[in-house]
Amino acid sequence: MKIAILSRNRKLYSTRRLIEAAEKRGHEVRVIDILRCYMNIASNKPMVYFKGEALEGFDAVIPRIGASVTFYGAAVLRQFEMMGVYPVNESVALNRSRDKLRSLQLLSRKGIGLPVTGFANKPDDVKEVIKLVGGAPVVIKLLEGTQGIGVVLAETQKAAESVMEGFMGLKANILVQEFIKEAGGADIRCFVVGGKVVAAMKRQGAPGEFRSNLHRGGSASLVRLTPEERSTAVRSAQIMGLNVAGVDLLRSNHGAVVMEVNSSPGLEGIEHASGKDVADLIIQFIENQAKPGKTATKGKG
What domains sit in the chain, N to C, each tagged with a CATH number? Predict the structure, then answer.
């Protein structure tokens, strides 16, 4: 098979591992910088070009698209879909998961456990929204934030009001969520491939840090999932429409709650913590699923 990986840097651990796994299984792999792609849209034959070359003959495409380039990256991915190339994750699912508010609304509608979450637009409503989620302490998140950036723990009512009013003054969209104290600064990353949890790890925040992101100095260790946690992770990925996803859970007093569903989950932490060859499992999934034109949306929506 001929596989395209949409990535801005072939030296990144996740990209490198996918290249190694695909080549080990006898496939031809090409890493393509999405920001260097351009497209011919107004044509009977949609095409993606890269440095003057038409990108043809690919069987599958793996999107490794950073949050900062979601809009353009999704457009390039959608063009590949229109050309009949099989996407590991579709452009619609990618956009859905990147919109924190939309993804929480979709998960909520399907009965997935979530932290109590508030959303408002005007500073006049700040006090009511804080009350709505159970009062301080609360977690305040920028909708556009990623890897723990733009996430603040406000421990008092006054601090929460100040942070929210400050963000609103900058015209930033924010979510306010209850603080799950019993999680103890830890979360669980469930790695889902093709409707199965293939690996999981517990991420523990650094001392004094409530965010458990490995980029923020957190540590990772092997964890045993409960049947409820496994089911929640699989259902969350399916609701988003993602074949490959990192589902982040918190263990609360009322069961597993979903923090986020990541459409481009990193492989380094999960492979080291679990000892699983996750990259190989993704390539195996592609081998079993990739067929020309096999997308649910065919580039629409």
Answer: 2-89 (3.40.50.20), 96-112+182-285 (3.30.470.20), 117-178 (3.30.1490.20)
CB 118 within 8 A of CB 175: yes
Residue bearing tokens 């679990």: 274
pLDDT beyond 50 at 299: no
State how far the Cα of 210 lies from the Cα of 218, in Å rounded to an integer.
10
> Using an 8 Å Cβ cutoff, are 209 and 217 in contact?
yes
Work out the number of other CB atoms within 10 angstroms of the CB of residue 136.
17
Distance CA 205, CA 200 (A): 16
Q: Which helix (H) or strand (E) holds 138?
A: strand 138-142
Give Cβ neighbours of residue 123 (< 8 Å, ≥ 6 apart).
164, 165, 168, 169
- Bridge partners, residue 136, by sequence: none
**Which DSSP category does 241 fall into?**
T
Q: Alpha-carbon distance 254 to 180, whole Å? A: 10
The pLDDT-based confidence of 169 (bands split at 50, 70, 90) is confident
| E-assigned strand segments in 166-281 | 174-178, 186-193, 196-204, 219-222, 244-252, 255-262
Separation between Cα atoms, residue 279 and residue 27, nearest integer Å: 13
Both tokens of residue 76? 């390039």
